[in-house]
Design a protein that fits this description.
The complex is a heterodimer of chains A (130) and B (145). Chain A is an all-alpha fold and 130 residues long. Chain A is built from 4 helices and no strands. In chain A, 82% of the residues lie in helices and 0% in strands. The chains are: A mainly alpha (130), B mainly alpha (145). At the A-B interface, helix 1, helix 2 and helix 4 of A face helix 1, helix 2 and helix 4 of B.
Chain lengths: 130, 145
């Protein structure tokens, strides 16, 4: 496998981890199961969302630097970084609200994370402006 | 470098396929976390039986349909041949459906009894599926000849 293929595989894998973290947060916030579900889902949700988020960003930037056709200032890459920041900010707040057990705006934060993540996927597939 | 020069017409089906695959893996990770926790901590097992079944029925199965529909759509657009990575994708997808249905049946039976846990069997099936999907993700991105 070439470096490009490794980077692409690991970048996509990180995106899968990110979405798995989102799914775990979703089941935690929207689903039933009470304290047992919280004990089962909170640690993997935080770990997957965190590891996936860092992996997507680092490997994505590396991929952009590696491929001649891409540049970090391409509109779709700038859009991806902005969406990543939005999703990460919402994820950080949701994580702390769940840790401190103050369910204020957990559903709203989850919706922001989900929309930003979906928009990231659309951006990655369609690459507007590339 | 195929991804870089992909025709625009493939983007819609690719979005459905990849989005479905991500939702499928995400929901399976939730199933694994719930089932493994119920297996390890018996006192939480009964409370986790119904959520485990619901995630399988309302998360994993619809995501599988989306992933597979996207795969068929993109395969018709792309006119893929019998390359190894396509075979890996179809093989994992078809064997995976069987395992998903077995896990859903086990989780349903336990949730109806309102006692016990499908934890061990469902956790093992979810773990096997996730390893298989890891291989499929590698095949889809690296596209081995």
């Amino acid at each position: 496998m070439s470096l490009y293929e490794w980077l692409l595989f690991l970048h996509v894998l990180a995106a899968f981890l990110l979405v798995a973290g989102l799914a775990a947060y979703g089941a935690l916030v929207l689903g039933a199961g009470g304290a047992a579900a919280r004990r089962a889902l909170a640690p993997p949700a935080m770990a997957l969302w965190g590891a996936g988020g860092i992996g997507v960003l680092v490997l994505g930037v590396w991929l952009a630097l590696q491929v001649d056709e891409y540049a970090l200032w391409d509109p779709w890459i700038i859009a991806a970084i902005v969406l990543w920041l939005v999703a990460s900010a919402a994820g950080g707040r949701l994580s702390s609200e769940l840790r401190e057990d103050r369910p204020g705006s957990t559903r709203l934060l989850l919706a922001v994370m989900a929309l930003a993540t979906f928009a990231l996927l659309v951006d990655m597939v369609f690459k507007p402006g590339a | 470098m195929l991804a870089i020069i992909r025709p625009d017409g493939w983007n819609g089906p690719l979005l459905v396929h990849v989005g479905g695959a991500m939702a499928l893996v995400g929901a399976l990770v939730v199933v694994l976390a719930l089932a493994a926790h119920g297996w390890r901590r018996g006192d939480d097992a009964a409370a986790l039986a119904r959520p485990t079944f619901r995630v399988l029925a309302l998360g994993v199965l619809p995501a599988y349909v989306l992933m597979r529909a996207g795969a068929e759509w993109i395969a018709s657009e792309e006119a893929v041949g019998d390359e190894a990575w396509v075979g890996i994708g179809y093989g994992v997808s078809e064997a995976g459906l069987l395992l998903i249905l077995v896990a859903t049946g086990l989780a349903w039976r336990t949730s109806r009894r309102a006692a016990g846990s499908p934890g061990r069997a469902v956790a093992v099936i979810a773990g096997v599926l996730l390893v298989a999907y890891l291989v499929a993700i590698w095949a889809m991105t690296a596209k081995p000849a």
